Request: fold
Amino acid sequence: MVKNFYDKVAKKFGDYQNNTRIINEFPHGNPEAIFKQKLLELSGKNKITLDSGCADGVFTLSIAPYFKKIIAIDTSKGMLKAAKKRQLESKMTNIEFVKQNVHRMTFVANFFDVIYNRRGPEDFPLFYKTLKPKGYYIAIDIGEKDTQELKEIFGRGQNFGQWNKSFLEKKEKQLKKLGFKIIYSGDFFYNEYYLTDQDLDIFLQGVPIFEDYDSQKDRKFLRRYLKEFKQKKGINLPRHRLVILAQKL
Reply:
C-alpha cells in the first residue's frame, strides 16, 4: 500500500527529502513552477484551501502565507509528524495537518475555495462536493509515460504498461462529467540527470515508482539501466508530468 510506503520513507529518511544530486532540463517549462504559479493566482487572504496528500508539508508551508487557511490531509503518520515538526519550526499558524483519507473526507459541502493536489490521492466527486460554487481544483500529477524506460527494464512499476493511455485526457473527461470546466491543461516532458549511481539509487528508495524497490535485489536491473542511460552529464531519467486546472460550475 502507498500509505505503508510513505510511512517507510518517513522512518528511513525522516521525511520526503532524500537530498539526491540532480540536474533538471525543462525544454517546455518547469511543470512544478507552472503549477505553483497558477495556484498562487487563485490565492487570497479570505480563501480556505485543501491540500490533498500533503506529505512532509514542505510545499504546504511555502504557500500558506497566501491563503487564509490550509487544511492539509494525508494518511501517513510519519509524513504528518514531519509536517507538524516543520510547522512548529516555522511558527505558521494557518495550517491544520489532519490524518484523513481523501476518499472518506468528512468536510461539509461547499466549504473550500480551492483544492490542490501535488501527485497525491484524488476523489473528483468529493472534490466537487466540498468545493464552493465557482471554486477551483488544480493538480500536478504523473503522466503515463513517466520513467517508462526504467519500468520496462525492471518489468514492473507505477502505472506499468499504460504508456498509450492519456492520463490528462482521462482526467479532463472525468472532471467535465461531474460539472467542472477545464481552465488549463498541459503535458510536460523533461529530463532529470542523476550525478551518480548512488544518487539514483537513493532517489528510487524514496519514491513510489517501485514501492518494493530493493537496492540489493534490484541491482541487476539498475545496472542494465545505467548501461543504457548513463551520459556525461549524469544518468538520464525521462519524466512526464501533467498540470490541470478546473472550475466548479
